[in-house]
From TrEMBL:
<dbReference type="Pfam" id="PF01261">
    <property type="entry name" value="AP_endonuc_2"/>
</dbReference>
<keyword id="KW-0413">Isomerase</keyword>
<feature type="domain" description="Xylose isomerase-like TIM barrel">
    <location>
        <begin position="23"/>
        <end position="214"/>
    </location>
</feature>
<dbReference type="InterPro" id="IPR036237">
    <property type="entry name" value="Xyl_isomerase-like_sf"/>
</dbReference>
<dbReference type="GO" id="GO:0016853">
    <property type="term" value="F:isomerase activity"/>
</dbReference>
<dbReference type="InterPro" id="IPR013022">
    <property type="entry name" value="Xyl_isomerase-like_TIM-brl"/>
</dbReference>
<dbReference type="InterPro" id="IPR050312">
    <property type="entry name" value="IolE/XylAMocC-like"/>
</dbReference>
<protein>
    <submittedName>
        <fullName>Inosose isomerase</fullName>
        <ecNumber>5.3.99.11</ecNumber>
    </submittedName>
</protein>
């Protein structure tokens, strides 16, 4: 099993820099880094470095750290106009360009939130499948995977593991899988039974988190309630051993 660092853990730290994170991860023995688009765009706009600088860093044979995923293309589904749909695909084209520069072979895609229509789960699934199939056509020539990260909040259009997994199955491509964040898995009470039945090869990324014992779907159950796995107060002390066994057995 390889260990990666998710910049979602430190993106609000003072003087944060993707380039600094690369150096720290290299120093402390991480295998991969999950670069956040929020951090990358912020640094590029501030002129801290260029994409060419980052590309040179990753291509330097002295560096062992690799980029696991570009996180993320946000709000990819349930667009209501053709212009909105076209904008998603244009953003995907730019991310593919960046991934090719950074030797990155995975893009995380985040579902839309606060939908303007009262869509059913079936309608959301059908839309996501259609969009992802179009996305596959774009990433396939580059050997890049798409990883759906369901987000455990009531306002998210895809907020449970079983729904995200069903979408990945329906797309039926080896290039489409799941990013499973343990915090999001717990936050909307995703089914562990569904996880046990899942094909481990479809889980591309696993984010290890603990969580305070918040009510499912509570509006105050935010990222601030995350904990280190097994930290005192982690409500899943009875659950993590099973989750950890799943990770180990499936090498996700």
């Amino acid at each position: 099993m390889k260990i990666g660092f998710n910049e979602g853990c430190n993106r609000f730290c003072q003087d944060h820099s993707v380039l600094k994170d690369l150096e720290y991860c290299e120093k402390h023995g991480f295998d991969y880094i999950d670069i956040q688009s929020e951090c990358l765009n912020r640094d590029l706009e501030a002129g801290k470095y260029t994409l060419e600088d980052l590309s040179a860093w990753f291509r330097d044979p002295a560096h062992k750290l690799k980029m696991l995923s570009y996180n993320a293309l946000i709000f990819f589904n349930m667009k209501q106009t053709q212009a909105e749909k076209a904008a998603v695909m244009e953003e995907l084209d730019e991310i593919i360009r960046r991934c090719n520069m950074l030797d990155c072979k995975m893009i995380v895609v985040i579902p839309s939130m606060d939908l303007p229509v009262h869509a059913t789960v079936d309608e959301i699934k059908a839309d996501a499948v259609a969009v992802l199939k179009e996305m596959v056509k774009k990433v396939e020539p580059h050997g890049i995977k798409l990883s759906i990260e369901f987000c455990g909040a009531p306002s998210m259009s895809i907020n449970r593991f079983e729904d995200a997994y069903a979408i990945a199955q329906a797309v039926d491509s080896p290039l489409v899988g799941i990013t499973l964040d343990q915090y999001h898995f717990h936050a909307m009470a995703s089914s562990f039974e569904a996880l046990e039945k899942a094909d481990g090869s479809k889980i591309f990324v696993w984010h290890l988190n603990g969580s305070e014992n918040m009510p499912c779907g509570a509006p105050y159950n935010t990222d601030e309630k995350r904990l280190w796995p097994g930290e005192p107060g982690d409500c899943r002390l009875s659950g993590p051993p099973a989750l950890c066994r799943y990770v180990e057995e499936n090498r996700v």
